[in-house]
Protein: Ribonuclease J
Amino acid sequence: MQQNRQQQPAAAKAPREAAAQQPAAALVPAAEDAAHAPQEQPHRRPRRPRQKREPAKPPIHIAFLGGLNEVGKNMTLFECQGDMFLLDCGMAFPDDDMLGIDLVLPDFTYVEKNADRIKGIVLTHGHEDHIGALPYLLKKVNLPLYGTPLTLGLVKGKLKEHGLLNKVKMNVVNPGDTIRFGCIGVEMIHVNHSIPDAVGVAIHSPAGTIVHTGDFKIDCTPVWGEMIDLGRFAQLGKEGVLALMADSTNAERPGFTKTEKMIANSFESMFRRAENKRIIVASFASNISRVQQIVDCAVKYGRKVALSGRSMVNVMSIGVEMGYLHVPEGVLIDIDLIKKYPKDKIVLITTGSQGEPMSALSRMAFADHRKVEVGPDDFIIISARPIPGNEKSVGNVIDELMKRGCEVEYGSMYEVHVSGHACQEELKLMQGIVKPKYFIPVHGEQKMLHQHARLAYSMGKRPQDVCIANIGDVIELSEDHMKRLPGAVPAGNVLVDGLGVGDVGSIVLRDRKHLAEDGLIVVVCTISSEDGHVVSGPDVVSRGFVYVRESENLIDDAKDLVFSVLEQCADNGIHDWGTLKTSIKDSLSHLLYDRTRRSPMILPIIMEV
Amino acid sequence: MQQNRQQQPAAAKAPREAAAQQPAAALVPAAEDAAHAPQEQPHRRPRRPRQKREPAKPPIHIAFLGGLNEVGKNMTLFECQGDMFLLDCGMAFPDDDMLGIDLVLPDFTYVEKNADRIKGIVLTHGHEDHIGALPYLLKKVNLPLYGTPLTLGLVKGKLKEHGLLNKVKMNVVNPGDTIRFGCIGVEMIHVNHSIPDAVGVAIHSPAGTIVHTGDFKIDCTPVWGEMIDLGRFAQLGKEGVLALMADSTNAERPGFTKTEKMIANSFESMFRRAENKRIIVASFASNISRVQQIVDCAVKYGRKVALSGRSMVNVMSIGVEMGYLHVPEGVLIDIDLIKKYPKDKIVLITTGSQGEPMSALSRMAFADHRKVEVGPDDFIIISARPIPGNEKSVGNVIDELMKRGCEVEYGSMYEVHVSGHACQEELKLMQGIVKPKYFIPVHGEQKMLHQHARLAYSMGKRPQDVCIANIGDVIELSEDHMKRLPGAVPAGNVLVDGLGVGDVGSIVLRDRKHLAEDGLIVVVCTISSEDGHVVSGPDVVSRGFVYVRESENLIDDAKDLVFSVLEQCADNGIHDWGTLKTSIKDSLSHLLYDRTRRSPMILPIIMEV
Structure:
């Protein structure tokens, strides 16, 4: 720990209220730990004779409402002796099979049910997967928010959009501060991540201390702020930690995540190579440190900076306003002005690094951007790694840009991106200094949680002291056990499609999938209300099934078939509409499958006159 | 080259017919090249005084029908002095936006148009992206096939399925052989790839020699057969090569692709770790060498081998039958028998390494496999890398397997896979020994072709001597120029959906996409043929739009709106059906967008009585 002392972040100045207020029994400094206690602690606590275990210590409950077995939607409810608080309230992006869905929220049922016992929401940082579901929750349950200045700055913009701005109480807290929720104290601990002002937390409760890293990496030379407060994590480890919950995003990746600062060198050499071309950099809108480095490089090479993409403009204006992004006077220009400057005097920073179809970069690639036209005079840098599932769309955007003659830098040729999450060596280091009794990997798909658990085993943890949980699980932790409580709380995906929240579910999605794969046949027919015989029709309308012109015979045969089915039913005195519709569906789907090997959705519509 | 002499493959034994038959002018051995000629050539050709350039040399034309700016669908037409032949005839897998499509074929229009001038189809190896479109082409144009034994063995199975087996002439050729198509000689050259019996070709024509690598890698210790015949490529380089066309699949990856043999060590250590568990390995069905190594390992550790997945069973039975896969008597057992053996005596080799939803491994993961149930007693190895676009579905399969308690090895933890394609150092090596005048990167998306071109520039090629072409382009090559001919030939995607070939196009796909994203509203109404007033209805049926139960008001409002629109039209004497339908669509889509921010497809159906 000593080599970090000079880097001790500002956070350390704040009083360790929580620790001080803890019941003494929660701190259990073992004799051998005390011997290695950090030297900056001038007065060692006097050794107390070991007490017998106090049997009455209450347990703490952790209900996972999101973020396990999935990426995104991070939301966890903690409860001890009836006091509750939420950690984060994130959204997720829809999977490929969630056709037409805009975003995914956690299920708020359990939160609504316990609304009167929940004292607040603590936010670890300002990424969508940690704050994105807030407006939707706050419309149902009004709870006070606690977060660092930038995090709340970003939340503010979000609440404004949803007309919630002055209805929610927002409390700015800083690393080192402790928030009190009844018997629970939540201490904020500075960490490094791909957005400034990120924190982990130490949850001090009568049951013991739980450390949650939030999203983190170890960056000894961060672009913004101090190095992660490893000192505090280690100190907590010395004092005794009941459980560690840690970010599993990069648990599959060996090694150590590189420092954000390394990007500067790559950018410098690319800026030199770009020479007389316009430079366009695509990056995550929230990565203020990345943008800072691009701005610094632009200043050095005498280029103006313009921003493209709504979220990029939003976040950067918040960043500048709040002092997280430093741009010298006159460097930032409006995108409308870029044509007034020579190409080699411009850097354009844009969204779209994930190949999102409607993003600024995609629109440039497909010549659909109102203000920017790209070509051989453009040097484009994709400063991000494709999130799993986006590889293909990112590849398509790169292909299109290259077809227009742009030079494109991406992937491994230059170091155009570093991750914001800890890799295996950092994860082990965190476990090693926090020394928790129990380990719960969080934030990640099953395979990431598994690899993270493997790291714990490799450091000597016993399988029974590691818990791979699922959303909906409630874990009970106390000094002598960690167990999953029977019965799960409601947790799952609430889908947002346009203005609808939760009105699209599995049946609607199943229909969309069916329509997507084989299209639709609507059969309309009017029958007589007297004898059931066909009065007019049947008519067949198809969409997404087949070119009608090439399949006139098939459509005619379908009409003939439906006609004969209906007439036969009429002859046999069958008038029940359910039976009629089923007969049409069955016979028609046979015909179509036989002739095309496809199974379009069949919608029989019968009218009676 | 000398260090490779011991490894000179069997191919070298065959007479170099093509070279011998070449007009002397095509060989132009420059004085400085002759000085470095390989020593195994005992009698140097006597130096001839340099001749003046013969101006009458005819050009050769290359028409790209597939495989450029895309992965898959490899198919190229060569023509010199009216003689034509096709190289490969592959299919591609559909992109995500090709909803419901099974596979993608090249456009055969240009081939059909020139059917009488095309002398045959040369196949480089038996992968789907090189032979998969054959049955569809051969149904239209009957052409003789030329390929190595395994390649034709795999084609045979394909033709049988399509009822074409005895209708097509198949000619077995081996490395070293030269096929004559009029003035063109096509020489087969042994290469390494992820399937045995792969070849590159040297196309000897009056215009000069063109070398096409096919899919290749350099494997100095291949599991099957000899090392790639670098000696022959180098010899061609010495003799003078007009153009090199080379595989760009891995052009973005630095370094050298590892030898297939390396896999054996990884498998050994995993087999040891698996101990008393059943081992399940997912791999590409066509990778016979991979399966050979798994079988060898199974034999060593006393396990029986069973196969799962139709293509795995098919390819391996061809492999065994033709002598490409060696399995000791009694090792291979039927999948129905695996339950008769203890788990630690079984290795199951299965398809599904790409997470394909209907594959054997996916079905195991989602507990939907009729014969195999997986759980904590299974040790599963995913011996493949996800093809771009498949990362997410592969991840899902791994997650599900882990949730069932399986141990899963994948990705970088062990070396579970090596590529079958050359990386940057190999690609440069190939360029360095073939020393072509012109360079044409093939097989890959734009970004891969670009990176491959960059490698050529880094080796000193001038941009004007490198051609990044597109499908549909026809390139003319001769000793003094390489140019794109004006006008493109038909080339694109012909979509196969069920039995339909080409009957699903952009309109149908656009409809499917629309239906997939927002679903469908069908409005049915019967109006009077006399005055146009509503007789019955309107009725509204929705699919994939919204839960009807939650939106009864919306549906009722929609009905009311359509009713009033129709009545208004009737009052105003508007009877034109086009106008009626447009009015319904417009007013309804406004209502729905206003209330839901969604735009479902609206199908108004009006009946008249």
